[in-house]
Write a structure and sequence with these properties.
By secondary structure, the chain is of the alpha+beta class. Among the domains are: about 120 residues, Orthogonal Bundle (Helicase, Ruva Protein, domain 3), CATH 1.10.8; about 90 residues, no CATH class; about 60 residues, Muramoyl-pentapeptide Carboxypeptidase, domain 1. Helices cover about 50% and strands about 5% of the residues. The structure holds calcium ion (CA).
Length: about 400
């Protein structure tokens, strides 16, 4: 997630759950297990000892991990945070400055320069916000003191492998509280799998070497499915009779089939006449903008599973490349929904037998489907987007 959105989520947080303190001896025995696995993966005892010497769990990391966002950011708020005039201008400036390197990387990995710039902008504001937590301590804390033991045990092992390969020292290896490192905020496992020593100095350095950072991003994107061709997404306009229940990220049709249904690019140019599978989404409901998601959007989502994250990268990239801003504004009355509101909504929809999944306060695809069903029942456009009006009408229903 981009640092700004993360800050806002954290600022909006109230629920602070502190897990029971783990004794230092339990922490030490947890580290022993990780150490054994690291040795199986070729890390010497000396490197592991050095990495874990004097290591204590970081309570600040535990606290940050246990915070639950109280609000779901709206599309409008998320995009306004991620895509500012300043970030577009800086992206254009950096792209011009590093043009030959970025062109060479496009030649090798197929990823256009504006996407590398957009990830860089969203992840660290072009290297200005890389995080100052000690990565080994953060991931070891998360492995030993939270419920995500397996994921972060592996991240700790991979962090030790980075030390073993002498890319960085433990002190130098800094990142976000959750262990994301360098200009592109790679997790240790991503670093090990996709990192590239582009400048050829024998070390992969994602903090200080932009050739290494950009080439690693290109290599990673290609590895998770980026293919030269269509962009990640484009804004579209839907015809008046468009069946809103087809605007769903789980529904794929060939681009030309959407065109045949009357979908056009914003500004009314025709969609490309191609067979590639694509989805249409309405991230702010039917009154807001519509986007077509091409196959490369999935690659962006393999970097980060959030749809709004991926959309912010896609839209920022387009604008860095000189493309138009999003034309359709989101509705002005869209409000962030609190977890409590979503829980209340899920409970009411469950009582109406429209929702059968977990009451978890998260606005996921199943909740949106239930919202659609109720919208149909009360004669609202079935876009699956719960507006304040929708919530009021659901709450007033008997
Ligand atoms: Ca290097």
């Amino acid at each position: 997630m981009n640092p700004l959105a993360k800050t806002i989520l954290l600022a909006a947080t109230t629920a602070l759950l502190t897990p029971p303190a783990l004794a230092q001896s339990e922490f030490a025995s947890c580290l022993q297990n990780i150490r054994a696995e690291a040795q199986r993966q070729g890390v010497t005892a000396a490197i592991a000892d050095n990495a874990f010497r004097g290591l204590t769990p970081d309570q600040k990391v535990v606290d940050l991990d246990s915070r639950q966002p109280e609000f779901t950011l709206t599309y409008g708020r998320y995009m306004a945070n991620a895509i500012t005039a300043d970030r577009i201008a800086k992206g254009q400036q950096r792209m011009a400055q590093h043009r030959s390197l970025l062109d060479a990387i496009q030649g090798e990995y197929g990823v256009p320069p504006q996407y590398i710039m957009a990830f860089w902008g969203v992840e660290t504001n072009y290297g200005s916000f890389m995080g100052d937590f000690q990565v080994v301590r953060s991931v070891a804390t998360l492995a030993c003191m939270t419920k995500r033991r397996d994921f972060f045990s592996n991240e700790t092992v991979q962090a030790l492998r980075i030390l073993a390969l002498n890319h960085m020292t433990r002190e130098q290896m800094r990142g976000s509280w959750a262990g994301a490192m360098g200009n592109m905020q790679f997790m240790p496992s991503t670093f090990m799998k996709w990192g590239v020593d582009r400048d050829g100095n024998g070390r992969i350095d994602l903090w200080h070497s932009l050739p290494d950072a950009f080439a690693s991003a290109g290599n990673f994107l290609r590895g998770i499915g980026w293919r030269p061709g269509l962009p990640a997404s484009e804004e579209v306009v839907l015809p008046p009779n468009f069946p809103l229940d087809q605007a769903d990220s789980s529904i794929d049709k060939p681009v030309r089939a959407w065109a045949a249904m009357g979908v056009k690019k914003a500004g009314s140019a025709a969609l490309p006449n191609v067979e590639e599978p694509a989805s249409i989404i309405l991230p702010a409901g039917w009154r807001g903008p519509a986007f077509i998601l091409y196959p490369n959007f999935k690659a962006v989502m393999n970097w980060n599973r959030s749809t709004l994250y991926a959309l912010s990268v896609a839209v920022l990239a387009q604008q860095i490349a000189g493309g138009p801003p999003v034309m359709q504004a989101p509705p002005g009355d869209d409000e962030p929904l609190s977890r409590d509101t979503v829980i209340d909504m899920q409970t009411r929809l469950a009582r109406l037998t429209l929702y059968t999944d977990e009451i978890d306060g998260l606005l996921g695809p199943k909740t949106r489907s239930a919202v659609r069903l109720y919208q149909k029942r009360i004669g609202l456009p079935a876009d699956g987007h719960p507006t304040p009006e929708f919530v009021r009408r659901l709450q007033a229903a008997r």
